[in-house]
Amino acid sequence: MTNTRAGKRFRSQEWFDNPNNPGMTALYVERYQNQAYTRGELQGEKPIIGIANTGSDIAPCNKIHVFLMDRIKAGIRDGGGIPMEFPVHPIQETGKRPTAALDRNLAYLSLVEVLHGYPIDGVVLTTGCDKTTPAMLMGAATVDIPAIALNGGPMLDGWWKGKRAGSGTIVWESRRLLSEGKIDYEEFMSRVCASAPSLGHCNSMGTASTMNAMAEALGMSLTGNSAIPAPFRERMNMAYETGKRIVAMVYEDLKPSDILTREAFENAIIVNGAIGGSTNAPPHLQAIARHAGVKLNVKDWETIGFKVPLLLNMQPAGEYLGESFFRAGGVPAIMGELRKAGRLHDGVMTATGKTMGENLEGWESRDLDVIKTVANPLRENAGFLVLSGNLFDSALMKTSVISADFRKRFLSTPGKEGIYEARAVVFEGPEDYHDRINDPDLKIDETTILFIRGVGCVGYPGSAEVVNMQPPDAVIKAGINHLPTVGDGRQSGTSESPSILNASPESVVGGGLAYLRTGDMVRLDLNASRMDALVDEAEWQARKDAWTPPEIHNQTPWQEIYRTHVGQLADGGCLELATAYQKVARDLPRD
Ligand code: FES
Ligand code: MG
């Protein structure tokens, strides 16, 4: 049986329609046709479209996908394909201990196995909560069959007493009020829960909205996919259209390798600056690029991304939330404004089958209060700085969240603008931080720099979102909300803290942070993109020589496998051995 692809067989026919091995073919067909499918459907009349479902009761940020499945499947059917839904290992940012980050590579691995080992011709990747999006894109890049991303969408805007209550951002604000004694535990809980009024992922520009904007900026979704709130009618329409489109992509043989080019990643880096995106985007994009075989470097985030203006007025860098972002035009409006200013690569191919420039034709801001123009941005130079020095080879600093107060306090000494020297206080992970942050013996005052280590990919494991450490209660009561903080872990994309984070290599593998001691003086120099411990070289070397790696305690087999093979955040936190496997769909599995 042949299909309409000019005599070219579908990949799924190697399973379902292979007269050279009638025994196996019959076994494949008999069990799949015992559910919804006829023999003809399986044997090449139409392509088989997998739907990677990341939603479930245990993954509430993506639960909406359970309800979108009908619309995705209807779109696939109407497009002329056969839908086959399958589950994905859950990655719930606010559920999984010790970190959801540990499971990104596990979900990636299992997606690669499913797409490689089953009769699937193309796939809809359902995305949403932070790590689900990169895990899906990494898997699709490794396998390289036609693939399209469908976001579940953010929750509706949260409100508390007439003010917008954004995911995560309300937590950081309320934690400070709790420390100051201005609210009690009950009000703290009510405030935070008010930020989650419906199904969907975080409604601020945290890692979820960022990574879905990245998927769209890379060209891996339909135009406008990322910002539609989960409960909106338009979200169901997008599910249907995405299902319909993936079938055409199979006929066009439009694969991730046609879309995920170096230029596409540069577009994504620029969009991340314009939306005030999460500091989690660099490691995730790095991971996707490596699995796609595209050369990207953490320093690209500064060279390409730093001088990008902040266009989006959305928490944590601004004031609005997801509903306003959507109504102002979402990612296509951001990209439309960047494009008008000549800031994007127009010619890159996308999942629509058209170039990015064609997709963006006519798109611009629909609400200048929410999405600004390049000529009149919220602020200039809103991207990341990539610092280096004797404490790390690289660490990120998100400049779009540096408040005027923070800049004045720490970075505006006359004659030394952008330079700050202070005493370090070092914590060994979040438990140590919580135990000792209010200890008067540490002498933390409004000038101190706080460090946390042992919280990177190998150390935590998975790298924890803990670098945005709150100052001691006494310092907060004195009116100072942020001290400079530094660490080898990450921080939540919803945090408004201008931390220096993702320090690589991490301390437990012998990175420079390992040798820092409480009481050392440290210099931050934003003009030179450097941070250094001011410890003389002989002393620093002596500390290195005396250092022994801390003991690692694995609690599960996966933790041990992960720690054995994971790389550093600067390199995407990939399973290093996995990056050698490229375009694996070309190598059919044995029968
Ligand atoms: Fe899942 Fe923010 S916790 S999207
Ligand atoms: Mg997070």
Automatic annotation (TrEMBL):
Entry EC no(s): 4.2.1.-
Keyword Metal-binding: yes
Name of the protein in question: IlvD/Edd family dehydratase
SUPFAM superfamilies: IlvD/EDD N-terminal domain-like, LeuD/IlvD-like
Domain Dihydroxy-acid/6-phosphogluconate dehydratase C-terminal intervals: 369-572
NCBIfam families (alphabetical): PRK06131.1, PRK13017.1
Superkingdom of this protein's organism: Bacteria
Keywords on record: Iron, Iron-sulfur, Lyase, Metal-binding
Annotated ranges, domain Dihydroxy-acid/6-phosphogluconate dehydratase N-terminal: 46-359
InterPro entries (alphabetical): Dihydro-acid_dehy_C, DiOHA_6PGluconate_deHydtase_CS, ILV_EDD_C, ILV_EDD_N, IlvD/EDD_N, Sugar_Degrad_Dehydratases
Record's keyword annotation contains Lyase: yes
Pfam family, any one: ILVD_EDD_N
GO molecular function: lyase activity
Family: Belongs to the IlvD/Edd family.
